[in-house]
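dumping this here so i dont lose it
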């Protein structure tokens, strides 16, 4: 298996997987199945130390869960290998360590959009159904970890986009959370016109050229009635509806709805701006809720904000399905310990404790109505609806190339280098070559 990086990309670019099996390159169609699905079952019995590879732990709770697991499993302990908070860099490091067959890389926190790519190229192991049952999990989360009817990622945390808003400011102005983009813009004008609010920025999400831009672009397109890929698996992004979605983002940068500095923002920069009281509205994931609620002085808006569904063009918007599934690395030496850690993290008791501590979105349906969880996070029904109605990003074996193409098109339009219509026409052509 060969992992090839496009020549025009630098060191920070995500690697592209090109040693694809013929059946897998068809995106899951055809009568044959890829070798990744027909390989013999992995031996998940060997115990010993191994590593959990995941992005930056902003909650600080992961160390507690690992300590709890290690106390229960002295024969095989987990060490946290912390990766950057940038999804593209996480993926790159996982791919590089697959190349060198790193035996210590045991459990991967696999973004839901990497499943096809990682499974087809045997980066991760298939998970036996008798050891990893899926009853009780949200169907969308199970589907996100499945490739050719086999599970490669066990659902441990989901994600749905939410609109964080300054409830104190909206209440003072007699406003309700917006359901459309126009309502959001008008709410900002009303609030900013009030004494002392003229320096407040209106709205922002994530617009730096990385996976977060793919998410925000997809949400804008879907929330305007468009789509990136049709039900037939073919590109459908060159449409009037998609153009309206991208134009919303482009126009929002032009008219000041989105601050110009947000072109460099990822999740953490946006979260910090909202917590510092600089934004009226903010699109982000559930993890922000616990951090913005802290009363230790790190948040200036604790007790002053709430969450609502994302707005759209003519009504409520559509979130991109987010989240991470735990996967067992193909080259891991001690796969028994890795499997035990995945089961531990996906157990109802541990998942509940983590949700309460971090506001992460659970994958077990029962936790969305759990009394302890909903008492601390009363927005759980909103989050559940966001996940249930979310749309997945394109499922593609060449996902690394697909997301780079989306980012190139969207970023060029946001910077004013390309008109939205032209950007989408070019993207349509590029996606056509990547998903054949």
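and the seq i came up w/
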């Amino acid at each position: 298996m060969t992992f090839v990086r496009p020549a025009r990309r630098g060191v920070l670019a995500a690697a592209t997987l090109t040693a694809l099996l013929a059946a897998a390159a068809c995106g899951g169609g055809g009568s044959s199945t890829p070798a990744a699905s027909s390989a013999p079952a992995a031996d998940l019995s060997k115990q010993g130390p191994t590593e959990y590879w995941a992005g930056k732990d902003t909650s600080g709770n992961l160390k507690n869960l690992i300590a709890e697991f290690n106390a229960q499993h002295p024969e095989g302990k987990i060490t946290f290998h912390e990766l950057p908070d940038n999804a593209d860099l996480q993926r790159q490091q996982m791919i590089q360590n697959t190349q060198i067959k790193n035996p210590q890389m045991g459990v991967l926190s696999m973004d839901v959009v990497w499943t096809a790519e990682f499974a087809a190229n045997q980066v991760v192991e298939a998970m036996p159904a008798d050891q990893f049952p899926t009853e009780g999990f949200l169907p969308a989360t199970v589907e996100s970890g499945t490739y050719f009817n086999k599970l490669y990622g066990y659902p441990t945390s989901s994600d749905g986009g939410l609109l964080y808003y300054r409830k104190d400011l909206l209440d003072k102005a007699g406003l309700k959370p917006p359901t459309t983009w126009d309502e959001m813009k008008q709410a900002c004008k009303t609030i900013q016109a009030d004494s002392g609010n003229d320096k407040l920025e209106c709205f922002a999400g994530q617009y730096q050229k990385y996976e977060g831009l793919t998410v925000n672009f997809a949400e804008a397109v879907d929330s305007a009635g468009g789509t990136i890929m049709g039900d037939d698996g073919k590109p459908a992004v060159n449409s009037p509806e998609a153009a309206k979605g991208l134009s919303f983002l482009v126009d929002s940068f032009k008219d000041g709805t989105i601050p110009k500095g947000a072109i460099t923002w990822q999740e953490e920069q946006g979260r910090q701006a909202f917590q510092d009281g600089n934004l009226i509205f903010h699109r982000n994931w559930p993890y922000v809720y616990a951090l913005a609620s802290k009363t230790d002085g790190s948040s200036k808006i604790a007790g002053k904000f709430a969450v609502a569904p994302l707005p759209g063009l003519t009504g409520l918007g559509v979130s991109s399905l987010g989240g991470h599934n735990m996967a067992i690395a193909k080259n891991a030496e001690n796969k028994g310990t890795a499997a035990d850690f995945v089961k531990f993290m996906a157990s109802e008791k541990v998942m509940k404790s983590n949700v309460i501590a971090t506001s992460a979105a659970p994958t077990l349906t029962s936790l969305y109505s759990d009394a302890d969880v909903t008492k601390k996070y009363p927005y759980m029904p909103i989050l559940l609806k966001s996940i249930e109605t979310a749309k997945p990003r394109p499922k593609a074996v060449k996902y690394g190339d697909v997301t780079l193409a989306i980012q190139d098109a969207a970023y060029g339009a946001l910077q004013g280098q390309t008109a939205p219509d032209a950007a989408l026409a070019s993207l349509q052509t590029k996606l056509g070559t990547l998903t054949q």
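Residues 1-37 have pLDDT under 50 and may be disordered.
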